[in-house]
């Protein structure tokens, strides 16, 4: 099973990245740190006669990750009760990517690529993060991507996620489930 984790935090070693690392402990995966990529905002040309135009940035790395992954994790801090801006920028560009003639198989491949969300916030995230999870559900529904699970953690300052026993337990359970699927006995 090929797994990619999209890390949407602007902070290195963020709580959402750490929680994702717990989920994937002992499992081979590719980590794509969105803050280290140049991804231009979408220029919505869906209804223009010429359609979307080629954008010379790093977004093809995102497309390649989707095309080669069986499971993708969207790891994001909860910023202003939603996903981070860099994560949202990546998601917005999917509108262009699924219409990109260079990748005619992308839309079909997404339908078999399982999605997970790992999110961490500091302002009552178990309640206030739920609308963001619903937003991801709508995104995955639109793309027809199977959305199998999410974990919300509570942390604010760097490293505080280690104090959220509930999130760590959920990460451990998900880790065991993934290992059974990847390395069946």
Automatic annotation (TrEMBL):
<dbReference type="InterPro" id="IPR051796">
    <property type="entry name" value="ISF_SsuE-like"/>
</dbReference>
<keyword id="KW-0288">FMN</keyword>
<protein>
    <submittedName>
        <fullName>Flavodoxin family protein</fullName>
    </submittedName>
</protein>
<dbReference type="GO" id="GO:0016491">
    <property type="term" value="F:oxidoreductase activity"/>
</dbReference>
<keyword id="KW-0812">Transmembrane</keyword>
<keyword id="KW-0285">Flavoprotein</keyword>
<dbReference type="InterPro" id="IPR005025">
    <property type="entry name" value="FMN_Rdtase-like_dom"/>
</dbReference>
<dbReference type="InterPro" id="IPR029039">
    <property type="entry name" value="Flavoprotein-like_sf"/>
</dbReference>
<keyword id="KW-0472">Membrane</keyword>
<feature type="transmembrane region" description="Helical">
    <location>
        <begin position="62"/>
        <end position="81"/>
    </location>
</feature>
<feature type="domain" description="NADPH-dependent FMN reductase-like">
    <location>
        <begin position="1"/>
        <end position="123"/>
    </location>
</feature>
<keyword id="KW-1133">Transmembrane helix</keyword>
<dbReference type="Pfam" id="PF03358">
    <property type="entry name" value="FMN_red"/>
</dbReference>
């Amino acid at each position: 099973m090929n797994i990619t984790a999209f890390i949407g935090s602007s902070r290195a070693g963020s709580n959402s990245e750490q929680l994702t690392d717990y989920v994937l402990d002992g499992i081979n995966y590719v980590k794509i740190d969105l803050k280290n990529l140049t991804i231009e905002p979408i220029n919505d040309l869906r209804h223009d006669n010429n359609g979307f135009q080629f954008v010379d940035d790093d977004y093809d790395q995102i497309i390649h990750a989707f095309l080669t992954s069986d499971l993708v994790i969207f790891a994001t801090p909860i910023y202003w009760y939603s996903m981070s801006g860099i994560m949202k920028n990546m998601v917005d560009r999917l509108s262009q990517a699924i219409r990109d003639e260079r990748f005619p198989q992308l839309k079909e491949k997404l339908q078999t690529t399982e999605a997970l969300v790992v999110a961490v916030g500091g302002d009552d995230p178990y309640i206030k993060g739920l609308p963001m999870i619903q937003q991801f559900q709508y995104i995955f529904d639109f793309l027809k991507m199977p959305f199998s699970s999410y974990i919300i953690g509570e942390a604010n300052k760097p490293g505080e996620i280690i104090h959220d026993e509930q999130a760590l337990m959920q990460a451990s359970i998900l880790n065991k489930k993934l290992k059974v699927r990847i390395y069946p006995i």
